[in-house]
Amino acid sequence: MKRLLFLSLLLGLIPSVKADSFCTLISESEPDVSLKMHKPYGGWGVGTLSYKNDPEYLLQIGISNGYGGQYYHLKNYDPNAIAYDSKLKHHYLKHEKLETIGYGPFVNFVGNQLARSTPEAQRTSGKLKAFMPNLGSLYYYSLSGNTKKGEYGRFNLSIKMKSILNASEGFFIDSGGCRKYFAYGWD
User: Fold this and answer.
1) Strands of 45-51's sheet, edge to edge?
2) Do 72 and 63 form a contact (C-beta atoms < 8 A)?
C-alpha cells in the first residue's frame, strides 16, 4: 500500500506531456525569423511567422484536394486566434475577424531536390526545406505605404521588416519534428 501511495505521488510530480506540441522551421538566411507550427491535424496545421520568437503573422498550411499540392495562408496576427480542441486533440484557427493577407504554394524540398517531382532513383538524403514563392511580395505589400516621417513602412523598412522580407524570399529549414508538415519527401 505504501509503495502504491509513493508511486502515485511520484507520478503526480512528473509533468504531463502537453498537447501543445510544436515544430519550428528556421529561415536559412535569417535565423531570427521562424515558422512555429502547432502539431498538424488531418493534413493541415496552424502556427506563426515569428521574429526573435515574437509572433508577427498567423500561418495556416494545408493540402489541396484533387491535385494534392500544399498551400499556405498568411493572416494578420491575433494572439487569441489559435485554439485547442481537447476532444479531437488538435489546434485550429478561429476565423472570426482575421484578415487574410494572401496565400500561395508551400513547396517541399529534400536538400536541394524538389520533393514532389524528383525521381526515386535520383533521390539523395538531405534536410527538409520549405519554400513559399510569393511570401516576400505578400509580406511587402501588407506593409503600410502611407507612413509619416520617422515611421516604418514599405518605403522605410526597420531591421525587423528587412529580416522578415529577406527570410520570406528563401528557404525555411526543419529544425526537427516537422516531418508531418512535409506531404512530400523521403527520410
Assistant:
1) 100-105, 70-76, 54-63, 45-51, 33-38, 22-27, 171-174, 128-131, 107-110, 113-114
2) no
DSSP string, 21-76: -EEEEEESS-TTEEEEEEPPBTTBEEEEEEETTEEEEEEEEEE-STT--EEEEEEE
Tell me how far apart the alpha carbons of residues 58 and 139 are, in angstroms, rounded to a whole number: 12
Parallel/antiparallel/unpaired status of strands 22-27 and 33-38: antiparallel
d(CA 127, CA 12): 38
Determine the 3-state secondary structure of 78 from DSSP.
coil
Cα distance between residue 157 and residue 140, in whole Å: 10
What are the pLDDT digits (tens) for 114-165? 888 888 899 999 899 999 999 999 999 999 888 888 899 999 999 999 999 9
pTM recorded for the entire structure = 0.80
40/180 Cα distance (integer angstroms): 7
Spatial contact of 108 and 130, defined as CB atoms under 8 Å apart: yes
CA-to-CA distance for 34 and 160, rounded, in angstroms? 12
Q: Concatenated DSSP letters for 90-132? A: EEEE--TTPPEEEEEE-EEEETTEETTTS-GGG-----EEEE-
Cell of 138: 505578400
